[in-house]
Design goal:
This is Transcription factor domain-containing protein. The protein is mainly α and 898 residues long. It is built from 33 helices and eight strands. The strands form three sheets. The chain has a four-stranded antiparallel sheet with strand order 3-4-6-5. A two-stranded antiparallel ribbon has the order 1-2. Helix 12 packs antiparallel against helix 13 (362-375).
Length: 898
C-alpha cells in the first residue's frame, strides 16, 4: 500500500475557530421557475379538494415539524437551504409539494413516537393521485417541482417498514430524462444532490449500480462555488464514482483507473480551505466528560464539513478494499490485504467518530448506520458491534435504525418456522449465544450425534471441537450455526436447502445422506466439509455477497477437494467429499454479482455426476440407499440452480408419463382444465405453458380430494414393472425418512417450470406481458413447493420465487396504468407471494403493494373475504394449502388499510 495515491487518514487538528458560515446565494442565482406558471399542470385530473391541503391545525403542525426538524437535515449540503425556504413557499400553491411534505413529516412523527398514523399513507396516496396523471400526460411539462416532490416522496419511502424503491427509480428516470436539471441551478440542483445521496446509500447497502448519470453532475455550480456545502457535494460525487467504478456488478477496474480515482480523492483533500479541517481531532479515547470512547474524537465547525469528511473517509475505505493488487495471486497479496484492512479500519473509525461526536448532525448518524450495515462482515472487528451502542445512547442513530427496528419486531418473535431466536446485535458474543439458544441433551456428544435407524448425521453448535481436532477454530462456525438475521429467516434454514436443516428439538444440523453404518460420522473433522459448511453459512450471513471470509473458505474447500479427489476411493470419506461438493454447488448458484457462478455450478454438477456413476466405488463402502440419496440431492441442486440463475438444467431426469396416465383415467380427467383466469393472458405464451398449468391444477384438485377423503387415493400404473401394479400417489410429508421428500409429480412440474423460466431469462424482455408471464411461472413453482413440503421443505427456493414475483410486480406497477390491464391476475400474484411466503419482510412488502394500489381496483374489491376467495379461485387454487394462509394475509391487508 506504500504506492497508494491516497493520503494517510491522519487529519491534523486546526486551531482556526473563525466563523465561516456560508453566504446565501442571491435569489437571482437560484434560477427558479415561476410556481404560478406550472399550476395548470398540477391540477390536471386532480381530485376535488386538492387545491389547499394546508388548512387544519394538524397539517400546520406537520409543516412546522418539517421546517424545524426535517428540512435542516435535507438541506445539509445546500448553502441556500432551498428545501427549507423555497419548497414550503411553493407548497402553499402546489398541492403535490404540500402532500409530499405532509406525508414525509407525518411518517417521521409516527416513526419517532412509535404511534401509528395512517394519515401519512393517506397524504402519500393523494400525492400519487396528482403525480401519476402528470407523468402519464405526454403534454405536461416535467420541471423542478416534480423532481422536488419525488425526492420528498423518496424520503417518505425510506422511512416505511418496507422500502420498495419505487420513488428512487422514479426520481432517477425523471432526472435522467431531463438533460439540464443540474445545470438549471436553484431547486432542481438542490434536489439533484439529495437524490444522489439517496442513490449512494442504496447502492452502498444493497450492492446495486447507481441509477443516475454521474457525468451530468460536473455541470453543477458546486464545482465553481467554494462554500463548505459545495466541497461536501464534490466529495460525495467522487465517492459515488469510486463506488460505481469499483463495486458495480461485473466491475473490475485496472490499476490505472483505480489510481486515478485515488488521486482525485487526494486532490479534493488538498483543495479544501484551512477552516474545513477539524478544529479538534484526537485519538485519545476519553471525552471531555471523562467517558471512554471507542472511536477518535473529531469535532467539525458545521454539518456540511462533517458530511464532507465522512464521505472522504468512505471513498478511501472503498479504494483501500478495491485495490487491484489485492486480487492478484502473488506471495505479497496477503501482506497487501492486511495493510488494506488496517488502512480501511482507520478510516472507518474516523467516520464513525465523526458521527458519534457531532450528535447534532443527524445525517452523519445515517452515514454511520450505512457504514456499519455494509462493512459489518468485511473489515469491522468483533468489538465494534458490541461497543457502539454503549458509546452513543442519544438520539443520533435512533432515527437511522428505527425503521429497521419496527420491521424487525414481528420477525424477532418466535414462530413455527423459527428454530433459533437470536438477535443480530449479539452475534459476536459467544457467552450470550450460549445463554440464549436452546439447550441440547448433555448426555449426548454435543459436537456430533447420530440418528438411529437412518443415515443422518447431526452437528450441534454448542460445542464443536471439544478435543481440538478441527482444522480451524470452530467459534465462527458456531456463531453462524446459531445466527438468525433480524429481518430474515434462521440462517441455516435459508442456507441449507436441499442438503441440511436444523432439528426442531435438539437444534442440531441434520445433513441428508451422511453417516456410516453405525449412524455416526466424523463430520467436521473432514476438512472439506468443515470449510464447505462454513462457506455456505458465511455467504448467507453476508446476504449472498462475496467477502474475505467466503473467499478464504472457498479457497480452502477447493484445495481440500483437490487432495481428496487425488485419493478418491481409497478411504472411508467418499461420502463426505461428495457432500462437500454438493455444498460448493449451493454456494456457486447463490452468490451474487458474479458472472461465473452458473458455469462453476454446472462444472461441479457434471463432475459429481461422473463420480456418482462409478457405482462400484460407492457401493463398496456404502449401501445403495446412500447412493440414491446423493443422486436425489444432486438432481435438486441442478433444479434449484436453474431456478436461481436462469441457466438451463445440466442433468436429465426421466419422469415422463405420470400426468399422461392420470389424464387417461376417467375419474380424474375433469381435473385437467386450465383455470379461467389465465385464459385472457395465455395468448403469446409458449404452447407448453397451458399444459403445465392444467397439470398443476389437477395436482391441486387431487390433494384437496385426498385431504377431504371424499375419494380413494389417486392411482397410476407403474411402468417400471411389466405387470400392472397399482401404487398410491404419496404426499411429500409422508416421505420424510426417505431424504428430500418431493413427490415425482411435483418434481415433474418443477422441472418443466424451470425449463420455461430459463427461456424467459435468455429473452431479457421487460414488457408488461413478459413480467406477468414470469411472475405466473414463479407462482406456479411456489405452489408446487407448498403443496406438501414436509420437514425437509427448504426456504431458499420458495423465497426466491416470492422475491421474483414481487420484483416482477414492482416493475409491472411502474408501467403506465398497468393495474387496469390485469387487475385479477395481479391480485392473485400478490396474494400468492404474500400468502405463501414464510418471511414477514416479504409478507409486508406484498401487503404494501396491495394497499398502495388498491385505488386502482373497483370499490370493495378486497373488502369481503368471500369475494377475494372467489377471485383467487379463478386461478391455481388448492384449498388445503392456500385457504388459511390467504385468509391470514387478507386479514393483514385489512389491518393495514384500517
Amino acid at each position: 500500500m506504500a504506492n497508494s495515491p491516497i493520503h494517510d487518514a491522519v487529519m491534523p487538528p486546526s486551531l482556526c475557530l473563525a466563523d465561516n458560515s456560508p453566504e446565501s446565494r442571491s435569489s437571482e442565482d437560484m434560477g427558479l421557475s415561476s410556481p404560478a406558471s406550472c399550476l395548470s399542470n398540477y391540477f390536471i385530473g386532480s381530485p376535488r379538494g386538492f387545491t389547499s391541503p394546508l388548512r387544519s391545525r394538524r397539517e400546520a403542525f406537520l409543516l412546522i415539524n418539517y421546517l424545524q426538524d426535517l428540512s435542516p437535515r435535507i438541506d445539509i449540503c445546500d448553502p441556500s437551504k432551498r428545501f427549507g425556504r423555497e419548497v414550503p413557499k411553493r407548497a402553499r400553491q402546489l398541492p403535490l409539494l404540500a402532500y409530499s411534505i405532509l406525508a414525509f413529516s407525518s411518517r417521521h412523527l409516527a416513526m419517532i413516537t412509535g404511534i401509528d398514523d395512517e394519515s401519512s399513507e393517506e397524504y402519500h396516496s393523494y400525492a400519487l393521485r396528482i403525480l401519476i396523471p402528470i407523468l402519464d400526460d405526454p403534454m405536461s411539462s416535467l420541471d423542478e417541482n416534480l423532481l422536488a416532490a419525488a425526492v420528498l416522496l423518496r424520503l417518505y419511502e425510506e422511512m416505511c417498514d418496507v422500502d420498495t424503491g419505487t420513488h428512487l427509480v422514479g426520481c432517477a428516470r425523471l432526472w435522467n430524462n431531463i438533460p439540464d436539471f443540474i445545470a438549471q441551478g436553484g431547486l432542481s440542483e438542490a434536489a439533484s444532490w439529495i437524490m444522489l445521496r439517496q442513490n449512494l446509500h442504496i447502492s452502498l447497502i444493497k450492492g446495486e449500480p447507481m441509477q443516475v448519470d454521474l457525468n451530468k453532475y460536473r455541470r453543477s455550480r458546486s464545482f465553481v462555488d467554494t462554500t463548505d456545502e459545495d466541497f461536501a457535494n464534490r466529495i460525495i460525487l467522487l465517492c459515488c464514482q469510486v463506488l460505481a467504478t469499483c463495486f458495480s456488478p461485473g466491475a473490475q477496474p485496472d490499476y490505472e483507473t483505480w489510481a486515478h480515482l485515488g488521486k482525485e480523492v487526494a486532490s479534493w483533500h488538498d483543495s479544501i480551505p484551512a477552516h474545513y479541517s477539524p478544529y479538534h481531532h484526537s485519538d485519545d479515547k476519553s471525552t471531555s466528560t471523562g467517558v471512554k470512547s471507542a472511536f477518535p474524537i473529531v469535532w467539525m465547525m458545521n454539518p456540511a464539513q462533517v458530511m464532507g469528511y465522512q464521505h472522504y473517509c468512505l471513498a478511501r475505505i472503498l479504494l483501500h478494499i478495491s485495490e487491484p493488487r489485492l486480487w492478484v495471486s502473488s506471495l505479497r497479496t496477503i501482506e497487501h490485504r492486511v495493510a488494506a484492512d488496517k488502512a480501511a479500519m482507520k478510516d472507518l473509525h474516523i467516520a464513525i467518530g465523526l458521527g458519534i461526536h457531532n450528535p447534532s448532525v443527524v445525517g452523519a448518524g445515517f452515514t454511520v448506520h450505512h457504514l456499519l450495515f455494509t462493512f459489518l462482515f468485511d473489515i469491522m472487528p468483533k468489538s465494534i458491534p458490541l461497543l457502539l451502542p454503549n458509546q452513543h445512547q442519544g438520539g443520533m442513530l435512533r432515527d437511522a435504525i428505527h425503521r429497521d427496528n419496527m420491521g424487525q419486531r414481528r420477525e424477532q418473535c418466535r414462530d413455527p418456522d423459527t428454530n433459533i431466536d437470536l438477535d443480530v446485535s449479539v452475534v459476536y458474543s459467544t457467552d450470550v449465544l450460549a445463554a440464549r439458544t436452546g439447550t441440547v441433551d448433555s448426555a449426548q456428544p454435543t459436537w456430533l450425534s447420530g440418528r438411529s435407524g437412518n443415515s443422518f448425521s447431526r452437528v450441534s453448535p454448542s460445542l464443536l471441537d471439544p478435543f481440538n481436532t478441527l482444522c480451524e477454530s470452530p467459534e465462527r462456525l458456531r456463531q453462524l450455526l446459531r445466527y438468525r438475521r433480524a429481518r430474515d429467516l434462521p440462517l441455516v434454514k435459508a442456507a441449507g436447502e436441499p442438503l441440511f436443516r436444523i432439528d426442531q428439538q435438539t437444534h442440531c444440523v441434520v445433513l441428508q445422506g451422511l453417516g456410516n453404518e453405525d449412524g455416526q460420522a466424523p463430520l467436521l473433522t473432514h476438512k472439506s466439509l468443515f470449510h464447505s459448511l462454513s462457506l455456505l453459512l458465511a455467504l448467507a450471513a453476508n446476504d449472498y455477497q462475496q467477502n474475505y471470509e467466503t473467499m478464504h473458505h472457498r479457497s480452502q474447500v477447493l484445495q481440500s477437494l483437490n487432495r481428496d479427489l487425488c485419493h478418491f476411493g481409497s478411504d472411508s470419506t467418499i461420502l463426505h467429499t461428495i457432500t462437500a461438493i454438493l455444498m460448493l454447488i449451493s454456494y456457486e448458484y447463490r452468490v451474487r454479482d458474479t458472472n461465473t457462478g452458473p458455469a462453476c455450478a454446472a462444472t461441479h454438477i457434471h463432475g459429481l455426476q461422473t463420480i456418482i456413476s462409478q457405482r462400484n466405488i460407492l457401493t463398496s463402502q456404502y449401501s445403495v440407499s446412500h447412493v440414491t440419496q446423493v443422486q436425489r440431492a444432486l438432481f435438486w441442486q441442478d433444479i434449484i440452480c436453474s431456478l436461481a440463475t436462469g441457466a438451463p438444467r445440466v442433468l436429465q431426469f426421466d419422469n415422463r408419463g405420470m400426468f399422461t396416465r392420470l389424464r387417461e383415467d376417467e375419474t380424474y380427467r375433469s381435473y385437467f382444465t386450465l383455470p379461467q383466469g389465465f385464459i385472457p393472458h395465455t395468448y403469446g405464451w409458449p404452447a407448453a405453458v397451458p399444459a403445465v398449468f392444467e397439470d398443476l391444477n389437477a395436482l391441486c384438485c387431487a390433494v384437496d380430494t385426498m385431504r377431504r377423503g371424499t375419494r380413494a387415493p389417486i392411482i397410476f400404473v407403474n411402468n417400471d414393472d411389466k405387470d400392472i401394479s397399482v401404487t398410491p400417489m404419496p404426499l411429500m410429508e409422508d416421505l420424510d425418512d426417505e431424504g428430500y421428500p418431493l413427490c415425482n409429480s411435483q418434481a415433474n412440474l418443477q422441472i418443466r417450470l424451470v425449463d420455461l423460466l430459463s427461456g424467459t431469462r435468455r429473452d431479457g424482455s421487460q414488457s408488461e406481458e413478459t413480467l406477468i408471464y414470469r411472475a405466473c411461472l414463479f407462482a406456479a413453482y411456489l405452489c408446487t413447493y407448498r403443496l406438501s413440503e414436509g420437514v425437509w421443505g427448504g426456504y431458499f427456493a420458495p423465497e426466491k420465487c416470492v422475491t421474483e414475483i414481487l420484483d416482477c410486480m414492482t416493475d409491472f406497477t411502474r408501467q403506465m396504468s398497468p393495474w387496469k390491464l390485469a387487475p385479477d391476475i395481479s391480485f392473485w400474484l400478490l396474494y400468492m407471494a404474500g400468502g405463501l411466503t414464510k418471511s414477514q419482510l416479504h409478507k409486508d412488502q406484498a401487503a404494501a403493494l396491495v394497499e398502495r394500489y388498491q385505488c386502482f381496483y373497483s370499490t370493495g374489491y378486497g373488502q369481503d373475504w368471500e369475494l377475494v376467495e372467489m377471485r383467487l379461485k379463478k386461478f391455481i387454487w388448492c384449498e388445503h394449502v392456500m385457504k388459511q394462509k390467504m385468509y391470514r394475509f387478507w386479514q393483514e391487508c385489512q389491518i393495514g388499510c384500517c
